[in-house]
Design brief:
By secondary structure, the chain is α+β, with helices and mostly antiparallel strands. The chain has 3 domains: 139 residues, Ribosomal protein L10, N-terminal RNA-binding domain (Alpha-Beta Plaits); 62 residues, Ribosomal protein L10, N-terminal fragment, domain II (Molybdopterin biosynthesis moea protein, domain 2, Alpha-Beta Complex), CATH 3.90.105; 72 residues, no CATH class. It has 12 helices and 12 strands. A 5-stranded antiparallel beta sheet has the order 2-3-1-11-12, with helices on both faces. Strands 6-8-7 form a 3-stranded antiparallel beta sheet, with helices on one face. A two-stranded antiparallel ribbon has the order 4-10. About 2% of the residues have low confidence.
Length: 296
């Protein structure tokens, strides 16, 4: 009787687990598995990224980089339960539209691969132009009608060519930093002009040691690092020369500086040597010339 009761209780318990809860549990299990498998974990916002672009990037970067869309509360729950250094700190960097990026590459290389892949999209009212937006000269596929009135009202030079609206010359419809109005956004959409470039906006990443990387740091390129190293080396060398620190980098310039100073001092006190004789002769000639001018 007891065994039968236990069996019936288990069946009843399994029936109480809804399909939705089962899906969430499966998502959390898969997420936890990926957290343990990949050394780099990155959070990014995928707002406004077209679905076809998302899938193309996913294919291009597979299998080293994997994209995983999951609800933020499930991520936070897994972070509390799993032992992965830095994950709890990364949870504080979750964006509004979260995609988790798992990568076998380091955070810098992952960021570069993600950031260089952009999609062109239409402007929405309120969007700010990242660069001057130009309506290019040439024919369009649009028949004369209300749009012709809109174009002329905005100052766009137009003409009718082959029964279609044509743009007479390049026209800047929106300057860099200006906000798109609903009229401009609609006009550009009708002209099939997609001036805005969007991509995954990374909000943070951790490496296998749990070190947190923020976007400003990840955006530093290898060229930037080399430039900083060169500048740091130059600054360190100048400081070492100022304080007279002797090492393999400073010994030669310090010797050259010492020789130059010694020569200058020798000339000032009229010390005769094979190094100073030419200088002293020139000095004597100059003094003699001055005395001759005064005497005359």
């Amino acid at each position: 009787m007891g065994r039968g009761g236990d069996s019936m209780s288990s069946i009843a318990e399994s029936r109480r687990i809804s399909p939705q809860r089962a899906r969430k549990a499966k998502m959390m299990e898969k997420f936890a598995k990926l957290v343990k498998e990949y050394p780099t974990i990155m959070f990014a916002d995928f707002a406004r990224i077209p679905a076809d672009h998302f899938q193309r990037v996913r294919r291009e970067l597979s299998p080293d980089i994997k994209f995983f869309v999951i609800k933020k509360r499930l991520v936070a729950k897994v972070a509390e339960e799993i032992d992965r250094k830095g994950l709890k700190e990364l949870v504080n960097r979750m964006p509004l539209n979260l995609v988790v990026i798992f990568s076998k590459k380091d955070p810098f290389e992952t960021f570069r691969l993600i950031s260089e892949r952009k999609a062109e999209v239409f402007l929405k009212p309120g969007d700010v132009a990242e660069e001057d937006i130009v309506i290019p000269k040439g024919p369009t596929d649009i028949a004369p009608g209300p749009i012709l009135t809109d174009l002329r009202a905005m100052g766009v030079p137009t003409k009718i060519q082959g029964g279609k609206v044509a743009i007479s010359e390049d026209f800047v419809i929106l300057r860099k930093g200006e906000e798109a109005s609903p009229q401009i956004a609609d006009l550009l959409r009708n002209l099939n002009i997609k001036p805005l470039k969007v991509g995954f906006k990374v909000t943070g990443a951790i490496d296998e040691e749990g070190l947190l990387y923020l976007p400003d740091l990840l955006a530093i390129t290898k060229e930037d690092i080399m430039e900083m190293i060169v500048k740091a080396h130059g600054s360190a060398l100048n400081l070492a020369l100022e304080i007279g620190e002797i090492n393999r980098y400073t010994v030669r310039p310090l010797m050259e500086r010492a020789i130059a100073r010694a020569l200058t001092l020798s000339i000032e006190i009229n010390w005769i040597s094979d190094k100073t004789i030419p200088h002293l002769i020139r000095k004597a000639v100059a003094v003699a010339s001055v005395l001759k001018e005064k005497a005359s």
